[in-house]
Amino acid sequence: MKKVHSKLTQSVHVGSVGDPQFGGLVNPIYPSSAYDYDTLVRYPRYFNTPNQTAVVQKVAALENAEDGLLFSSGMAAIMTSMFALLKSGDHVLFQNDLYGGTHHAALTELKRYGIEHTMTDVTDLKNFERAIRPNTKLIFIETPSNPLLKITDIGGVAKIARKYKITTIIDNTFASPVNQNPIDFGIDIATHSGTKYIGGHSDLCCGVAVASKKLIEKIRASAMHFGGSLDAHAAYLVERSLKTIVIRVQQQNKNAMAIARFLSAESKINAVHYPGLKDHPSYAIAKRQMKNGFGGMLSFEIKSDPEKFLKKLKLIRKAVSLGGVESTIAQPVKTSHAKLTAQERKEAGISDKLLRLSVGIEDAAELINDIKQAL
Ligand SMILES: *Cc1c(COP(=O)(O)O)cnc(C)c1O
Fold it and tell me: Quick check: CB of 173 below 6 Å from ligand 1?
């Protein structure tokens, strides 16, 4: 196919081979787990079946990456990428604001295999650089972060990593491949929980890692051992979802901005965390690296009882997970950060009154009205 550059066109057309036999427009679902071995050996756990490949081509195009792998979950993408690059005795430098699953995996799995790690504040890059050790093999960042929407300077981290020849991974889930393309800023590997914006309909679980061909082959070699591949039917659903990711995320960007502005002006709200607000401490960095929008995630502190507020919402649903077409809300104390002690939460700046909103594609005025009546 002719090379297309607009994300709108890429999301629809890249990876589409259609159905030459019957003239159908869409890729058929190829459920085969057995293929002729004379040419390329295809096998679901080799991450190279037609439906897996179609998804990878789309996400890689949207991320300006050479290649990628489709996994059965975001954690499979993250852990397989890390284990493919690390060995016992190595050190990983993480930013200290991380998805709970990644945080916990570092404390348990990496530790158990003799891989050291440090979690450091990355808002001060000099301080972050000082945490690098002679055995640091990997730097892992995540931006915007959960649930306070803190912003990491992607280009700044990539520059430091290059200086020390350290491989970098970013969890790009919150921004989605529409808003932020970390490989353009010198990051080596971008991972997504495809369960969120890539799937986008709160009905499937998958993960993606994109990088250079060379790095992807290295990760694939381990991935074939760990085996976290996605089956053809789910892969087809992911491909279908990706055709609308750009318009979905554009609407979510717009809605989130409108809600963030409304909340900022609302006297019943204490604090609003959204990187698209000019008073966000890292607004300038966010504007530079989130080229197409500031995303659909925001959080805020409510003055009144959060439980009562949540009960009164009619349109916005109380749920874990995020990135779906429907707006959902969660209380981090009860969900993502329930395992932390009160002191740890205080240090992380997560109050009991903090609420995290995943903005959907509904009408912004109706979402705002729902919040207004609940307040
Ligand atoms: C959900 C999530 C993950 C884990 O993804 P799964 O698909 O649940 O395995 C990782 N990182 C972030 C930022 C997430 O939101």
Answer: yes
Q: What sections of 151-293 are H helices per DSSP?
A: 154-163, 176-179, 213-226, 232-242, 245-264, 283-289
Residues 140 and 67 in one domain: yes
| Number of domains composing the chain | 2
In a shared domain, residues 209 and 286: no
List pLDDT tens digits, range 148-183: 999 999 999 999 999 999 999 999 999 999 999 999
Q: Give, for ligand 1, the residue of 78, 99, 103 to mutate: max count of ligand atoms closer than 8 Å to Cβ.
A: 99
CA of 65 to the centre of ligand 1 (A): 20
Tell me the HSE value of 77 on the side-chain side, using a 13 A CA sphere. Answer: 28
Query: What value, to the nearest 5°, has the Cα angle with vertex 345 and ends 200 and 301?
Result: 65
Ligand 1 atom at shortest distance from the alpha carbon of 76: 9
Q: Which domain holds residue 16?
A: 7-242
Q: What is the CATH number of the domain that holds 21?
A: 3.40.640.10
Residues 209 and 188 in one domain: yes
User: Could you tell me if residue 159 is inside a domain?
Assistant: yes
Q: How many helices (H) and strands (E) does the chain have?
A: 15, 12
